[in-house]
Amino acid sequence: MPDCIFCKxxxxxxxxxxxxxxxxxxxxxxxxxxxxEHFLVIPKQHLVAMTEVTDWSLVGHLxxxxxxxxxxxxxxxxxxxxxxxxxxxxxxFHVHLxxxxxxxxxxxxx
Length: 110
Ligand code: AMP
Ligand code: ZN
What we know:
- This protein has 110 residues and is of the alpha+beta class.
- It has 2 helices and 5 strands, in the order αβββαββ.
- The chain has a single domain (5-101), classed as HIT-like (HIT family, subunit A, 2-Layer Sandwich).
- The protein has helices at 5-10, 56-73; strands spanning 20-21, 25-29, 37-43, 78-81, 97-101.
- Strands 1-2-3-5-4 form a 5-stranded antiparallel beta sheet, covered by helices on one side.
- Strand 2 (25-29) and strand 3 (37-43) form a beta hairpin.
- The radius of gyration is 13 Å and the shape is globular.
- The mean pLDDT is 97.
- Zinc ion is lined by residues 1, 4, 6-7, 46, 94.
């Protein structure tokens, strides 16, 4: 997708600090962190939103990558989440899993 910022990251057109990479996914720090630790895990395949997913093993894989990174960076725990659509306050339309930590999370989320 030519105008997709996360596809450009996958293609190496926008440089990021890679925290983990597999054949299907890439993890890198969020540019606007909402916690002391905040990174994203994205599929290399362009998928607009969770509502477009058909291969659910991919979503499991995103979590596998996130936990692999978070286990080292956030030994005290972390939160994983995926925003979907307007009510989910999704702003980048290429599926991404957030992983936040480094402080206690608030509940309920806003
Ligand atoms: P969401 O509201 O779930 O769609 O969140 C999109 C996230 O992508 C936000 O937390 C942004 O800070 C993050 N983001 C946008 N552009 C970049 C970028 N170039 N590198 C890293 N994170 C980004
Ligand atoms: Zn994309």
